[in-house]
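for the writeup, i need someone to sanity check this before i put it in the appendix. the sequnce is what the collaborator sent (i think, or maybe the updated version? ugh). structure was predicted straight from it, no edits. if anything looks off just tell me and ill rerun, i have time this weekend
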Amino acid sequence: MAAALLICIALCAAPAIYSSMQGMLRLHLLTKPLTTILIIVLAASLPATQPAPYRALILAGLVFSLAGDIFLMLPRGLFTAGLAAFFIAHLCYIAAFWRLPLQALWALPVYALYVVVLMRSLWRRIGVLTGAVLGYAVIISLMSWLAWSRYVALPSQAALLAGIGSLLFIASDSILAYDRFVGMAGNQSLGILVTYYAAQTLIALSV
């Protein structure tokens, strides 16, 4: 079942990425959210290997991510709504990954440096969205650190998948933010969506 769903996810992600690169709006509007729906189905169908609250929080995060996907495909004025949906998704992931005692404290300065570098590169271009973008950068960094803290505290394949997924999520959102606010040569859909779908799939597999 899982293998079949992974194949379906890949087969749906390919036209989602291609349609974004080629500006094929109708195909993109169909395949982008459908890919995320398949990732949700994957997480829901996997045998339970983690505590029920963890599984529920990951599923909730995926559902809010689906909402974020839809908002970000709609007119530019809904960018803030998409950002808010993903913010809530990361809060769900944070709650799932939180495990005491916290580990990997040495990584906190690395994540702090990432936030500083990102905001420095975007600072003069994000205007009224400065607070929202800063908050999002902090929350996604916290999410990723907690994913790795959980792996250090309780090493397992599931925790490792979540940790790798969290880093891919940061990569995807960083490319998206820089492309949207600063502008990058060429179409960045390939980099944004490959890392995004890989991130969500790995996090889904961690349940």
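Residues 2-205 form one domain. The first helix runs from residue 2 to 22.
thx in advance!!
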